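Entry:
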Amino acid sequence: MKNNEVGRTSDLLKKGCKVGNVLIDVPIILAPMAGVTDLSFRMLCRELGCGWTYTEMVSAKAILYRNKNTKPIMEIADDEKPVSLQLFGSDADIMAHIAHEIESGPYDIIDVNMGCPVPKIVNNNEGSGLMREPKKVEAILSSMVKAVKKPITVKIRKGFSENDINAVEIARIAEAAGVSAVAVHGRTREQYYSGVADWSIIRDVKNAVKIPVIGNGDIFTAKDAKKMLEETGCDALMIGRGAKGNPWLFAQIKEYLNTGKISTEPNVNMVKEMILRHTKLQMECKGEYMGIREMRKHIAWYTAGYPESAVLRDKVNHAESFEELKALIETRL
């Protein structure tokens, strides 16, 4: 990378990103991913340079009806700042009520999920299903902004389908409603996570609104991060699937944007150490029984591409204790 290119891209880290009254010093974000970005994984990503985290998405109705399963999802670390709590729902009154209820909590920002493509969410006109109803989007966001003083943000997709590309329209509605930032995933709902993310829609949204725009989709390497900044002009970068099994990506992006140098990939010993550390954190948060089981998918991501990784994953899937899992990692990876 040439020196002048380093200067342009490192501005992201020098200036940070202002979201309402919250300054994001390092606008490199771990995307909210259900079943992935729990407290333990967020803590690891923070240590490696992630500057902004989100909880996994939480149902506003579940909070309203005091569903016991929401409490663990809403927990954050004492030093996890800045952090967003992400809500999903389709009833404007309930969304506003819950935003007001949780405003006194430790969250810096309240985010609205309008990007989840899962059928059971979409069929309730929640998540990315809301992108089909701009008037409802306006009602939800306006009600929430009026109900709280903390910043409200929203995460959207390119559109619901290729025949209904309306990210720019939704972003303008969000800005007019008083939303403080918008994250844009460059895929439609119908794409789910297939194909290639269309970064041009992120650029279009950036050109259409004055609030910060967060770019999301297909950032798997530090070079991807730089390329997205250059092609879209976005104010922050959001990393989703690229972080699975690779929390080192945040450190790599920071170094590349600052210096133009590519960090060395983690060696096998670093991977082993990270797996065991991650497992211990999971057990602290969820107990040994659940912690070991939660780690199975993470270990599959950490070990992808290693020789005989399929055999290791099969054995890990039958491990019942930390000692058993530790022995497998130390001897078979």
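The chain has two domains: 3-259, 268-332.
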